[in-house]
Structure formats: structure tokens, C-alpha cells
Design brief:
The chain is of the alpha+beta class and about 110 residues long. Helix content is about 25%, strand content about 20%. It is built from two helices and five strands; from the N terminus they run βαβββαβ.
Length: about 110
């Protein structure tokens, strides 16, 4: 099973009208296509992953692990997701969370 990256862009995440930062969906899709990431890390833009208090949530899943990231509120955070997915595609150890995204990692208490 390839890794799957779920990026929330739903009821709260990415909703600037609710005071949240934008989720750059087009940037992510373009990067996945440009760098041929999809065979190794499947990108899924979803409506709601659950922990809305962490807004702009992403979930990276493998057959054995789930890594939750929240408060992805800057374009740099999303560029970091792209760089992480590219590194996984290039064979880097997975699922080690890069240092620059580690502060955004959380464990959901309930869904």
C-alpha cells in the first residue's frame, strides 16, 4: 500500500471566511503532478478529517502508522508536506516526521 496523504479542505479547514488560513489545494495538486509523487504518496483532498480545533489538518497514513498534523497555517507548511512526500518518493526513511513539521504533530483525542 502506498502512503496516503489526506489534506482537509472542508467545513473549517481552509475556510478564510471562518478566520482560518487557506489550504493551497491547487499548489498541492500541481506539485504531485509535477514531481510524480502520486504512485508513492497518494494525495486525497477531503472535506473533514475531524479535529477541527486543530484547523488545517492533514493525515499521513501507511498500512502501519497514522501521522496527524494540525495548524498548517502557512504556505511553508504545505511546501514542507510536498518536500516530505518527495523525500518519501526518493526512498527516504518513512514515516519519520521532518523536524520542520514535528511541532505540528498531534494525537487526536477523539474523532
Amino acid at each position: 500500500m502506498p502512503a496516503k496523504l489526506y489534506v482537509c479542505s472542508g467545513c473549517c479547514c481552509g475556510r478564510v471566511e471562518k478566520g482560518n488560513n487557506e489550504v493551497p489545494v491547487d499548489m498541492l495538486k500541481s506539485a504531485w503532478e509535477e514531481h510524480s509523487i502520486g504512485e508513492t504518496v497518494q494525495l486525497n483532498i477531503t472535506t473533514c478529517l475531524g479535529p477541527c480545533s486543530m484547523n488545517n489538518v492533514s493525515l499521513l497514513k501507511t498500512a502501519s502508522k497514522s501521522i496527524w498534523l494540525g495548524k498548517l497555517n502557512t504556505p511553508k507548511h504545505f511546501q514542507d508536506l510536498i518536500d516530505w512526500a518527495k523525500a518519501i518518493t526518493e526512498g527516504e526513511q518513512f514515516p519519520v516526521v521532518p523536524d520542520n513539521l514535528a511541532p505540528n504533530r498531534f494525537v487526536p483525542t477523539s474523532l
